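#help-structures
NK: newbie question, is this the right format to request a structure? protein is GGDEF domain-containing protein
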Amino acid sequence: MPTQNRERLLDSAVISCGYALVVAIFLIKPAVVQDRSIPAALTLAAYPMADLFIFALLISLLLSGGLGTQAMRLLALAQLALLVFDLAYAFIPAFLLQDSLFSGITNAASLAVYGLLGAAALHPGFTSLTAPSSFESRPQLPWIRVPLLWTAALAGPALLAYEAWRYDGKVPDAFVIAVGCTVIFGLVVGRLQALITRVNSQSVELAEQARRLEVLASSDGLTGLVNRRTWDDMLTAGLEQAGRQQLTTTVAIIDIDHFKHYNDTHGHQAGDRLLKTAAAGWSAQIRHHDVLARYGGEEFIVLLPDCDAATAAETLGRLRAATPDNQTFSAGIATWNHEESADDLVARAHAALYAAKHDGRDRSVIAEPNRSVRV
């Protein structure tokens, strides 16, 4: 059962139990203990017990759908009038019931109640009361839910105080009140547990959504590689670590040769597949601590910590062999001199890339502070 439905049923049970305490003491008990025949006592007790059942259904509908439809408003008004009428009937003096005028008024009130029930049943919107709907689309009614729950929870203590006042400190119905309070307390604990379960579930869901958003924010949507923004942060952090540990760190920029022609010939979908397949193939050829990112378009960039230019050129050779569809790429390689900024390092790698493309593509060029070396 969904958590929200379980909470609604628990709320309905709490409210119904609070009302049941009042009905049991003021309606059912008088019907049973008075000097009547057993069939008569059962008949009189059946009315308030049926009211309890209808009341529980009404509360469940009310908490799930609110008073948004005319049929629901008619049904709620009819049931409320019936409950008030039955409770008031228990306190009406016997001599008034024998009066013809008063008896006519009560009969008219009773007929009015059933008239409201009939109007609700005949309303076109009556069939939609039990139609399934998402929890988010249901109107939330704290102004109904909270007062009803408070009233139900206080029904037991209020009855205890009432009987202690009326019977000079004695509580004739102490056992019934104790049982009712225990049941209500158990339902409230169950309601709290359901709430805790929902909060925990939402916390897990929010954490998972946050993780997915973090992945989406840091990854390229097509290839799944690190995106440009995240790459900038990782490069800065990598150079800081290399500076502290005096590591040789190299950056290489890769550009797939004649990618526009490939797109025009095979279509953009084929071009996207080429980028994704190349990214997957290249990722399998680098170390786990190397960082491969999509730099933009058909350009990729890789950070190679603790790696010199010659080793980087060997790594790019493996990447070139793993490039799909017999495609080639040009690459520029630059090793950090421990003085230049991250932007200057990438600029030198870019300059080496342009030299590789100028020399005919399908090759790598190693950039040095003052010159570039073809490999």
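mod (FA): yep, format's fine, and the tokens are attached above. The first strand starts at residue 250 and ends at 256.
NK: thank you!
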